[in-house]
Design goal:
- By secondary structure, this protein is of the alpha+beta class.
- The protein contains 4 helices and 2 strands; from the N terminus they run H-E-H-E-H-H.
- The protein is globular, with a radius of gyration of 13 Å.
- The model has no long low-confidence stretch (mean pLDDT 94).
Length: 73
Amino acid sequence: NGKPLDAVARFHLGNGARVERLNFAGDPSGKGIKQSYGLMVNYLYDLKRLDKHRAMLAQGKIPVAKAIEDLYI
């Protein structure tokens, strides 16, 4: 359906947030490793860009910070 699989991501991104930061080993618990290999995400709500981010998500694009874009290979 084009929506994020993770419920937390679906909530934040659906409300217009963007992925701001990735925290490697942010949740090293057994549950965290099983769910996301220990990765945690910080979301940013930029009130001036909420509608833009929602529109991006509707097009299947995840809004991310520049620092996250720079990680792409």
